């Protein structure tokens, strides 16, 4: 069993180097925990990942919390999760401060000119990957398309879309009898959905509530969290523009840690350092609660067919609503044929040539720096 020192140092090290999204992060953990240190067997690792995949929020963080709990119980899980997040969160706060102070300088805008379209390509590739994983039959494909149409053209609230999609797939897969048994809980679900509306005008309270809701309901991981943040921080509260949100996403791609750390940037823009701290704490809090509270029920959760049917419907609809938000982000990234080419290249490299997200992100960062340097020398 690893010591407290080993748990702390490994997850802190991982927090500094895990650039490239959940696939790269989970691969690094598999190599260390299963193949190198043998903290877990391969079968145990796969079962834990299956459990984390069912939860809202970032899978890599949940895996870190789970392994920390297995090795050092409650506080081991907390330690693993916090050290996994901490380096990236601090880096995002520093980058957010620099962005606010120097974001309008030509060198910064030139670097983001290259990075933002690449990030849009990465998001598009993520949508394709989520779609392939979520669409197991024709009905789930119908739910995906219906979610896109309902949100894009009918303006239906996306939380309601996700709830309806989950219930419809539950009926199709498990029969109306399951719905009848669940009927008494439906009013509570609807009330719960409507209750996700802040009851205070305080800016800091709104930040805490928005990001708690984001962490609680982001089935589909970081890409799903974009929906909540764009609809809340941009469309509802007007804390920042779609272009600024994409700047934050671009910075998170360039930063180690969970992709969802772009929420730290949004919190900083909305409320300074207190806002960044609140956004970071509340967006990741549900992951800690779900994992640390659910470790004893992993088999029961995985074998609950009704829950899996509901979540399958939700996951399919999530892909549709992410696609809607991605369309809203296009004007802030694709401004000419060069940015279109960068975005398409990033998409093709990841979606079809199977290049690592980390390599594409680092390549875009380097390209942005080179472009900004060349432009500065030419002036």
Structural description of this entry:
With 379 residues, this protein is mainly alpha-helical. The chain has one domain (4-378). The chain has helices at residues 4-17, 21-36, 42-53, 59-102, 106-134, 138-152, 158-174, 176-182, 186-194, 203-217, 222-236, 242-253, 262-294, 298-303, 305-333, 337-351, 357-378. α6 runs antiparallel to α7 and α7 (158-174) packs across α8.
**Which outline best applies?**
globular
- What summary fits the major beta sheet? none
Q: Structural class given helices, strands, pairing?
A: mainly alpha
**Beta-strand percentage range:** under 5%
Task: List the helices and strands in order.
Answer: HHHHHHHHHHHHHHHHH
| Average of pLDDT | 87
Whole-angstrom Rg? 20 Å
Number of domains: 1
DSSP summary: helix tally: 17
Distance between the termini: 59 Å
What are the low-pLDDT stretches, counting only 5+ consecutive residues below 50? none
DSSP helix fraction: over 70%
Number of strands: 0
Question: Which key terms come to mind for this protein?
Answer:
17 helices, 0% strand, 82% helix, mainly alpha, 379 residues
